[in-house]
Design goal:
2 domains, about 150 residues, alpha/beta
């Protein structure tokens, strides 16, 4: 075999290994080529600090969707968030959305807290029960100033 043939074979093997690695990484991270079915919902928050497009939407600690859009509503001065939820999950119409933290130094995510209603939200509906994130600095300032909110 000539030297060029060996170089082509080694290059092909490296390319095949790289392609296999990329496919494997795509499956692990959920970036497969097949589009998953998801329903879109809407919620309005006083603050979406720590949340951005692509942030996880979780239920019981399990990722069930993704934040797809964040905008400031110029009429209400609130942050409007659009997010998707897997279509096999039916949300009761009294579901709440809370912006939660993964810990003191962790990131933020949107958490869905399903209620007990017998009726489900329609895809594209607004979830009205929302709670914004609470920043660590904000909590520390309240603690240091002694503002416990007791009246």
């Amino acid at each position: 075999m000539s030297e060029n043939t060996i170089e082509v074979l080694v290059g092909g093997a490296v390319l095949a290994a790289a392609t296999g690695f990329l496919l494997y990484a795509g499956q692990i991270t959920g970036l497969s080529g097949a589009p998953s079915q998801a329903h879109e919902y809407f919620a309005s928050f006083r603050s979406v600090q720590g949340v951005s497009v692509g942030t996880d939407v979780r239920m019981a600690g399990v990722k069930v969707g993704t934040v797809t859009d964040l905008r400031l509503n110029p009429e209400t001065f609130r942050a409007d968030a659009r997010f998707t939820v897997s279509s096999d999950i039916l949300l009761p119409d009294d579901t709440a959305v809370v912006i939660s933290s993964e810990g003191l130094l962790g990131g933020y995510f949107m958490e869905l807290l399903p209620g007990g209603s017998m009726f489900n939200l329609e895809p594209g509906a607004e979830i009205e029960d929302t709670q914004s994130s609470i920043g660590l600095v904000e909590l520390l300032l309240k603690f240091v100033s002694g503002d416990g909110g007791d009246g």
